[in-house]
TrEMBL record:
Taxonomic lineage from the root: Eukaryota, Metazoa, Ecdysozoa, Arthropoda, Crustacea
GO cellular component: membrane; mitochondrion
Similarity comment: Belongs to the peroxisomal membrane protein PXMP2/4 family.
Organism this protein belongs to: Darwinula stevensoni
UniProt-annotated location(s): Membrane
Coiled coil segments of this chain: none
Alphabetical keyword list: Membrane, Transmembrane, Transmembrane helix
GO biological process, one term: mitochondrial ribosome assembly
Protein's recorded name: Mpv17-like protein 2
Length: 228
């Protein structure tokens, strides 16, 4: 029992330190780990779809995502700390102000820093980074409006301040998979824009389902009527 109590105390002290004294470090590391994890999931999904045959897993791509996530961790940390100080309370009006501030200030900033960081680590010049950003930002920002306002409503209403960035990072896994998809898709689907490639995949999946159903129907008819 003494060992169990000692272990529980150690866990509690660790949690208290990570979410109070060392909260900045926690938020920074989690940002890098989760952005990197989003790319891992996306690469696994790409391979499942049949891309990258005969090629090894792109560890440098995941490393770049991890580093950019680390770099965005401190701004995320200080941003939400600032929001809580400026907009106090959990009434609907205050939450709306936080969400709108997040969408109109934080969302463009983190999109810009994402493409800048990834582009420079890929060896691109500023002109190439700017062209990529202009091409892909509308898709990123549109999806941002779909996922983040409801997420942030829950965040600002119910999530304690110390766990706010962790909660956002957890939802960010889905967001990071999308970012990895938008960022890297044209590398192996050059004939499509990012969104066109997405809908192309949906269309192919639909066609595969139709062909599978038609094949099943033909087999059934052949068994019933013995049609050669």
């Amino acid at each position: 029992m003494r060992n169990i109590r000692h272990f529980v105390k150690m866990v509690k002290n660790f949690k208290d330190n990570m979410f109070t004294k060392h909260l900045l470090i926690t938020n920074t590391v989690s940002g890098g780990v989760l952005l990197g994890s989003g790319d891992v999931i996306q690469q696994v999904f790409e391979r499942y779809q049949g891309y990258h045959k005969g090629r090894r897993y792109d560890t440098m791509r995941t490393w770049r995502m991890f580093v950019v996530g680390l770099l965005q961790g401190p701004p995320h940390h200080y941003w939400y700390t600032w929001l809580d100080k400026v907009f106090r309370g959990k009434d609907l009006k205050t939450i709306a102000k936080k969400i709108l501030s997040d969408q109109f200030i934080a969302a463009p900033f983190f999109a810009i820093t994402f493409f800048l960081g990834m582009g420079y680590m890929e060896g691109k010049d500023f002109g190439a980074i700017l062209r990529e950003f202009n091409k892909k930002f509308p898709y990123v920002y549109l999806f941002d409006w779909c996922i983040w306002p409801p997420t942030q409503y829950i965040n600002f209403l119910w999530v304690p301040g110390a766990y706010r960035v962790i909660y956002v990072n957890a939802v960010t896994v889905c967001w990071d998979v999308f970012l990895s998809y938008i960022k890297h898709r044209e590398q192996f689907e050059k004939d499509f824009t990012p969104m066109e490639a997405f809908f192309h995949d949906v269309e192919l999946h639909h066609e595969d389902n139709i062909q599978e159903v038609e094949g099943t129907q033909k087999k059934a008819l052949k068994n019933v009527y013995q049609v050669p």
